[in-house]
Write a structure and sequence with these properties.
By secondary structure, the protein is an alpha/beta fold. 36% of the residues lie in helices and 15% in strands. The protein has 11 helices and 10 strands. An 8-stranded parallel beta barrel has the order 1-4-5-6-7-8-9-10, surrounded by 6 helices. Strand 6, helix 5 and strand 7 form a beta-alpha-beta unit. The protein starts with 24 loop residues before the first helix and ends with a helix. It binds ligand PBG and zinc ion. The site of zinc ion has 5 residues, from loops.
Amino acid sequence: ASTAATSVSISGDISSQLHGGYAHPLARSWQAERQLTKSMLIYPLFVSDNDDEEVLIPSLPNQYRRGINRLVPFLEPLVHKGLRSVILFGVPLKPGTKDALGTAADDPEGPVIRSIRLLRQRFPQLYITVDVCLCEYTSHGHCGILRDDGSLNNQLSVDRISDVALAYAKAGAHCVAPSDMNDGRIRAIKLKLIEEGIVHRVTLMSYAAKFSGCLYGPFRDAADSCPSFGDRKCYQLPPGGRGLARRAIVRDINEGADIIMVKPASQYLDIISDAKELGKDLPVAAYQVSGEFAMIHAAAKAGVFDLKAMAFEATEGILRAGATIIISYFVPEFLDWLST
Ligand code: PBG
Ligand code: ZN
C-alpha cells in the first residue's frame, strides 16, 4: 500500500528520459568518448622534384603539388595555427626518373629526403611522417618490384622498401609509414631500424588494413602513381575482407608496428573498430583518403550539405569508431575550425 502522500506520481518510464543529458552544447560534447583535437591530425603533402612549382590538383580540391621551395612559406602559417604533423609523398616528375626498381625513392637529392631535412630544421616541433612506397617511382606504377608475369616479387620488394624506409628514417623522419602492402615489410623495416641503431627514435606506422577500391583516384593524379597496367587487387585488400583485415592488423602488430592504420576511413568504420579492439594497446590511425575528401567537396558543391558540417560529421564518425590519429586533406580547415 502506498503511504507516502508526498510521492511524485511518475507516469513515464524514467529511463526513457534522455533529452536532459544533451540539452546544452557543453553536455552534448560530453557525450563523445573522444574530442577532435589538432594534435590528432596529420596533413598529407605532395612534394615534387620541380623545386619552384605549385600546381593545383584538379581532382583534389584546394590541394597542390609543391616543390621544396614552396613548402616553408606554405607551412609557416599552418604551423602557427597549430599544425603538429605532416605526411610526405614524393612525386618525381622529371623525365627518366622512374625505373623498374623505383631507384629514385631514396635518392639523397630527391624531394622527400631533402624535404625531411628542411622541415626538421625549419620546424623543429613538427612531426614528420613519410609515406614509404615505390609506386611513385616505378615505371610501371606498382607498389614494388615485379616478376616477369607482372605480379609483385614480395622478397625483392620488401628488401627494397625496407631500404627506402631506413633512408627516410636516417634523414630524420620521425615516422615511416609503408603503404605498399607487401607481406613482411613491417618486420623487415623494424629489423633494419634495430640494426642501424635508430629504432628507439623512429615510429613505424603500418598501413595495415588498406583496401583496394575506387577512392584513391585523386591521389594517383596528384602523385602520378597510377599503375600502367592491371590494378592493385592482389596486394591491397578486397573491400569485403574483414577477416583478412583483422589478420593483417594482428600480423603487423606482431611484426613490430607502433601504429596501425586503416584506409580508407569512412567506408571502413567497422575495420577501425576492429583495429582498436585487436590493437587496444597501440594507437589506431585512419586515413580519410583523396576520394572521400573529393566526394565531400562535390556533394557540398551540389548543395547536399554544408562542407564544414560534413567534415566534422565524417571525422567524428572516424573518431567514434576508434581512431585517435586522422590523416586528412581537411587539416588546414580544421586548424581554423578548432580554434573558434
Ligand atoms: C601509395 C599510396 C596511395 C595512397 C597513400 N599511399 C595510393 C594507392 O595505394 O594507390 C592513397 C591516399 C589517398 O587516396 O589519399 N601506395
Ligand atoms: Zn604504392
